[in-house]
């Protein structure tokens, strides 16, 4: 089991976590009544023919503590986002366990936001989805809009979200999620969107969350964001945890390994 350090309060414990995706490879007979019957009969007896197992996370163990900001690095497909989804309770573990103190939020509110509604309506919807009251949303509304910066070039907050660029939409999502103090907040590449000014605001907000005893996980391919924001880094490769330690030590080892 992941080690617990004396005197510090754990917020997330991953204990030998394995996550397996099952991908339908489109074998013959797909969609037929015979194929459907064979799936039912095989239930609980292993995977049906034509289903490929993808072992995305392999035996990962770690303990995260209050006040930590932890970076997740690794090449594409290394299991970083999959691990965050498991911590958020969105993916089941094949084996092993994830224990969390409080409710983890995976960059808050993507599923709740609606493209046909205005940014203004989505701020309200996103806030409600995170458990904020209407009074709290009203109180923080202007700060959320200002933080996102989407009104800097016109009144975009009153337009439907489908008119936003992907960067604007991502900034608004981050701004809504960051408006609440989280026990555990997981951010997947949000700081890669937007200009340097927005990144600086985001990094400052992450430091605030840490000071309020929250735990922040950040997935990013931008090593400077990781260095500026995180005190500790987990390096995943092919679903395995290769290294877990102080930011500079782990990021330098990763850069050395991937520089050639």
UniProtKB/TrEMBL annotation:
<comment type="similarity">
    <text>Belongs to the ABC transporter superfamily.</text>
</comment>
<dbReference type="InterPro" id="IPR003439">
    <property type="entry name" value="ABC_transporter-like_ATP-bd"/>
</dbReference>
<dbReference type="Pfam" id="PF00005">
    <property type="entry name" value="ABC_tran"/>
</dbReference>
<dbReference type="InterPro" id="IPR050683">
    <property type="entry name" value="Bact_Polysacc_Export_ATP-bd"/>
</dbReference>
<dbReference type="GO" id="GO:0140359">
    <property type="term" value="F:ABC-type transporter activity"/>
</dbReference>
<dbReference type="GO" id="GO:0016020">
    <property type="term" value="C:membrane"/>
</dbReference>
<dbReference type="InterPro" id="IPR017871">
    <property type="entry name" value="ABC_transporter-like_CS"/>
</dbReference>
<protein>
    <submittedName>
        <fullName>Teichoic acids export ATP-binding protein TagH</fullName>
        <ecNumber>3.6.3.40</ecNumber>
    </submittedName>
</protein>
<keyword id="KW-0378">Hydrolase</keyword>
<keyword id="KW-0067">ATP-binding</keyword>
<dbReference type="GO" id="GO:0005524">
    <property type="term" value="F:ATP binding"/>
</dbReference>
<dbReference type="InterPro" id="IPR027417">
    <property type="entry name" value="P-loop_NTPase"/>
</dbReference>
<keyword id="KW-0813">Transport</keyword>
<dbReference type="InterPro" id="IPR003593">
    <property type="entry name" value="AAA+_ATPase"/>
</dbReference>
<dbReference type="GO" id="GO:0016887">
    <property type="term" value="F:ATP hydrolysis activity"/>
</dbReference>
<keyword id="KW-0547">Nucleotide-binding</keyword>
<dbReference type="InterPro" id="IPR015860">
    <property type="entry name" value="ABC_transpr_TagH-like"/>
</dbReference>
């Amino acid at each position: 089991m992941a080690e617990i350090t004396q005197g510090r309060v754990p917020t997330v414990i991953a204990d030998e976590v394995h996550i397996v995706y099952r991908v339908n490879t489109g074998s013959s007979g797909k969609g037929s009544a015979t194929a459907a019957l064979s799936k039912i009969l095989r239930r609980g007896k292993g995977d049906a023919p034509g289903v490929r197992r993808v072992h995305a996370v392999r035996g990962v163990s770690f303990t995260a503590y209050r006040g930590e900001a932890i970076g997740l690095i690794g090449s594409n497909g290394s299991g970083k986002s999959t691990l965050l989804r498991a911590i958020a309770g969105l993916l089941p573990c094949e084996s092993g366990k994830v224990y969390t103190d409080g409710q983890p939020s995976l960059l808050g509110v993507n599923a709740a936001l609606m493209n046909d509604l205005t940014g203004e309506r989505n701020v309200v919807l996103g806030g409600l989805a995170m458990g904020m009251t209407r009074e709290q949303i009203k109180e923080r509304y202007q700060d959320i809009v200002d933080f996102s910066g989407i009104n800097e070039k016109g009144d975009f907050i009153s337009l439907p979200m489908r008119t936003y660029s992907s960067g604007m939409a991502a900034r608004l999502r981050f701004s809504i999620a960051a408006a609440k103090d989280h026990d555990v907040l997981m951010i997947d590449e949000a700081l890669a969107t937007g200009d340097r000014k927005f990144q600086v605001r985001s990094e400052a907000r992450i430091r605030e969350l840490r000071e309020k005893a929250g735990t922040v996980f950040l997935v990013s391919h931008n090593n400077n964001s990781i260095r500026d924001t995180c005190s500790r880094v987990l390096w995943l490769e092919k679903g395995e945890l290769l290294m877990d330690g102080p930011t500079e030590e782990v990021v330098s080892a990763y850069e050395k390994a991937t520089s050639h």
